Amino acid sequence: MNNEQTTPQVKRETKNTIRVEFDRTPLLERLKAKFATTFFLQKVVFYIFRLVLLLGISYVILYPFFAKIAGSFMGMEDFIDVTVLLIPKHWTLDTYKAIFVENEYMTAFANTLLLSLSTAIAQTIVCALVGYGLAKFKFKGNAATMFAVIISMIVPHGTIQLSMYMQFRYFDILEIFNILNDAGITAKPYIANLTNSYWPLIILSITGLAFKNGLYIFMMRQFYRGVPDELEESAYIDGSGTFRTFWQIIVPLSVPMMVTIFLFAFCWQWTDNFYTEVFFTNNKTILMPDIVDIPESLVTTYQGQNLFYSAIYNTCGIMIIAPLVILYLFCQNFLVQGIERSGITG
Fold it and tell me: Which end of the chain is more exposed for a tag (fewer CB within 10 A), N or C?
C-alpha cells in the first residue's frame, strides 16, 4: 500500500523538477530543444504539403466560378484585350441589365417560383406518405410497388416523352369518353388540352410520377425504416389512429428529411428544361431556362463576339442559380441532416 501511494508522488515530483530545470535553461536552448527536432520538421513538412495540396485543389475547383463571375462584369473591350485575365478593366453591369430587362428575368422568376413551389410541396407530401407506407406497412404488393419505384428511377425519361405529351394534350378525364364508347353509348368527348399550363407538372407531382419522385420515395422509405416502431406502437396504445400518428409524431421527426426532399424537388424543377419543353410549346410562358439568350442590345459583330456571347450565357446561368444559392445558405443544415439520415450516404 505504501509503495502504491508514494509512486504517483514520485512521478509528480520528477515532472515538476524537469519542468523547473527546463524553465531555467536559456531561451535559445529551449527553442532548439523544442523546434530543432526531427519530429517538428516532419510536422512542418506535412503541414506545408497539405496546405499546398488544398490550395491546388481549391484553385482547380473554384477557378471556373471566379472566371465566369469576373467575365459577367467585363465590357466588350476586355474580351479582345490579352492583358485581361480575371480582373476587368472596364467594369460594367450592362450584361445584367440587358438580361434583366430584355430577357424578362422577373417574369421568368415569378413563373418559375410559382411552378417550383407548387410541385415541390406536392412532391414532398406525396413522397412522405408513399415512403411511410412502404416502410411501415406490410401488405401484398409491397415489394412489387417498391420495384416499380426503382424502375421509375432507371427508365430514361426520353422514352416516355411522347406518351406523356399525348396524355396531357388529349386529357380525357377519368377516361369517361372511352368507357361510354365501350358501353355502346355515343357521347361527346370530354377532352382537355392541359399543355402550355402548370397542370401536367402538378398532376405528375400529386400522383408521385414527377421527375425524380422515385428517388424521393426511396429516400423517405429509407428514413422511415430507421424510425423506431415503439413510437407508433405507443401512439396506437393511446388511441391514436394511423393518420394522426403520422402527422403528429412521424412528420415532426422527419422535418429535416422533408426539407431535403423539398430542396431537391425545388432545385430540379427550377432548372428543368426537359419537362418544360415537353409541356410548354407555345413559348408564351417564360421560365428560367428561357432567359438563356443573347439580348438584342448586346448583339455585335466585333472581333471577340464568341467570347462575349459565351460570357453572356454564363451570366444567364449565374442569374438562374443565384436564388438557389441563397436558398441553400438558409437551409444547408436541414439538407446535411436529411442526407445523413436518408441511408444513401457514402
Answer: C
Dihedral (C-alpha) 302, 303, 305, 307: value to the nearest 10 degrees?
-150
Domain CATH for 171: 1.10.3720.10
Q: What is the dihedral of CA 130, 131, 133, 135, to 10 degrees?
A: 160
Query: Backbone dihedral region of 325: left (phi > 0), alpha (psi from -120 to 50 degrees) or beta?
Result: alpha
DSSP state of 91: B
Render pLDDT for 163-212 as a digit per residue (tens, 0 to 9): 888 888 888 765 666 666 666 665 555 577 888 889 999 999 998 888 88
- Return d(Cα 267, Cα 112) in angstroms, integer: 10
The 3-state DSSP class for residue 295 equals coil
Tens of pLDDT, residues 14-34: 656 656 555 566 667 766 766
Task: Return d(Cα 224, Cα 130) in angstroms, integer.
Answer: 11
CA-to-CA distance for 179 and 186, rounded, in angstroms?
10
Going through 64-156 in order, the beta strands assigned E by DSSP cover none
Residue 91 has phi, psi (to 5 degrees) of -65, 135
Distance CA 229, CA 236 (A): 11
How many CB atoms neighbour CB 17 within 10 A? 10
In a domain, 247, yes or no: yes
* Percent of residues in the chain assigned helix, strand, coil, to nearest 5: 75, 0, 25
Q: What backbone torsions phi and psi does residue 280 show, to the nearest 5 degrees?
A: -110, 105
Give the number of domains in the chain.
Answer: 2
Range of the domain at 20: 1-36
CB 276 within 8 A of CB 119: no
Find out whether 198 and 121 touch, Cβ atoms under 8 Å: no
Residue 210 lies in a domain: yes
Residues 114 and 257 placed together within one structural domain of the fold: yes
- Which stretches of the chain score pLDDT less than 70? 1-27, 30-31, 33-34, 173-190, 303-304, 338-346
Q: Quick one: which of 145, 123, 124 has its CA closest to 133?
A: 145
Grid cell in block for residue 319:
442569374
